[in-house]
Write a structure and sequence with these properties.
Layout (H helix, E strand, L loop, with lengths): L9 E14 L3 E3 L2 E3 L3 E3 L7 H13 L5 H4 L13 H13 L2 E11 L9 H12 L6 E6 L5 H4 L3 E12 L1
Parallel strand pairs: 5-6
Antiparallel strand pairs: 1-4, 1-7, 2-3, 5-7
The protein binds cytidine-5'-monophosphate and magnesium ion.
The site of cytidine-5'-monophosphate (C5P) has 7 residues, from strand 6.
């Protein structure tokens, strides 16, 4: 049975995702297209950052995970704009009585360099989640050429969010 949260209750959620890199696919991170010779492969637009943040929101509210709400076998989500998942996760958490406080995240990708896109990505995420810009953090790391991310086979994203009741 679900219980109403205590007033002022703080909830923390963790999200992680990985997608393969493929030539000719778009590289979309936090809803922002980044010019690149390779992009992320997947059923939706494969926005690895949006997916990690979606899971973090769902996790904080104990609402399952992204695949439960948006199965990758559902043709509705083929090529989908992953910001739809983010908006829905925010809405579901809101229906449980939680509002977002902040988002912190890291994208791990060997190349291209992403730092010039940080502001655009933060802005897009902030708009989508109804947050002030200073409550949305996006960081970038390489994998130092080690492992599948370091070898340029994939990209990962990690996210953590805080929700507050009331
Ligand atoms: O992975 P590393 O510590 O070498 O990253 C150094 C900096 O390079 C990061 O703090 C980030 O600002 C930037 N970076 C980037 N795009 C990437 C990876 C890292 O802009 N794909
Ligand atoms: Mg994904």
């Amino acid at each position: 049975m679900s219980q109403a949260p205590e007033p002022g209750e703080i909830r923390i959620g963790l999200g992680w995702d990985v997608h393969r890199l493929a030539p000719g696919r778009p590289l979309i991170l936090g809803g922002v297209p980044v010019p690149s010779e390779h992009g992320l492969d997947g059923h939706s637009d494969a926005d690895v950052l949006a997916h990690a943040i979606t899971d973090a929101i769902l996790g904080a509210a104990a609402l399952g995970d992204i695949g439960m709400h948006f199965p990758d076998t559902d043709p509705r989500w083929k090529g989908a704009d992953s910001l739809v998942f983010l908006r829905r996760a925010r809405q579901l958490a809101g229906e449980r009585g939680y509002r977002l406080v902040n988002v912190d995240s890291t994208v791990i990708l060997e190349r291209p360099k992403l730092k010039d896109f940080r502001q655009a990505i933060r802005q897009r995420l902030a708009e989508t989640l109804g947050l002030d810009l200073d409550r949305v953090s996006v960081k970038f790391k390489t994998a130092e050429k080690v492992g599948p991310v370091g070898e340029g086979l994939s990209a990962e994203a990690q996210a953590i969010v805080t929700l507050k009741a009331g």
